[in-house]
Write a structure and sequence with these properties.
With 139 residues, this protein is an alpha/beta fold. It has five helices and five strands, in the order E-H-E-H-E-H-E-H-E-H. The protein has one domain: Response regulator (Rossmann fold), CATH 3.40.50.2300. It has a five-stranded parallel β-sheet with strand order 2-1-3-4-5, with helices on both faces. Strand 1, helix 1 and strand 2 form a beta-alpha-beta unit.
């Protein structure tokens, strides 16, 4: 396990409508760093409202890391949310998760868009933990 350098106030935003999976992700995050501040949303619309509000309070990136599912309930999906973050908070780390594979993900994106950090479901706890830990390590 990589040794984490602690930073007060580190926060992660999980946008997932599957509560069981959200619980698994929460447990993984807490095992990486028990001091993390976690927040949740179940729709992209709710997430965007939270991001905007929090960015006004923090005057910068609203979270250190956001994890979002692609297929969410509501009019917008996780890729819309990723694009919103990419435009408004370009230095905020975002991981997109979904049951589709990487090839299908690239088909959903415009040809000129970069591919977001992606974790395909079902994922192992180890794969998820390694990816999230690598993103939460402070240089």
């Amino acid at each position: 396990m990589v040794e984490l350098k602690k930073r007060i106030g580190r926060s992660v935003f999980v946008v997932e409508d599957d509560l069981e999976l959200s619980t698994v992700i929460d447990r993984i995050l807490i095992s990486i760093d028990p001091t993390l501040h976690l927040e949740w949303a179940t729709t992209a619309e709710e997430a965007i409202a939270t991001l905007v509000k929090r960015s006004k309070e923090k005057n910068n990136n609203p979270y250190d890391l956001m994890i979002c599912d692609i297929f969410l309930e509501g009019a917008r999906n996780g890729l819309d949310l990723w694009k919103f973050c990419h435009t408004h908070y370009p230095s905020m780390k975002v991981v997109v998760i979904s049951g589709i594979d990487l090839e299908k993900l690239t088909e959903l994106l415009d040809s000129h868009e970069e591919v977001p950090l992606f974790l395909s479901k079902p994922f192992s706890v180890s794969d998820c933990s390694n990816l999230l830990e690598s993103l939460l390590v402070v240089p």
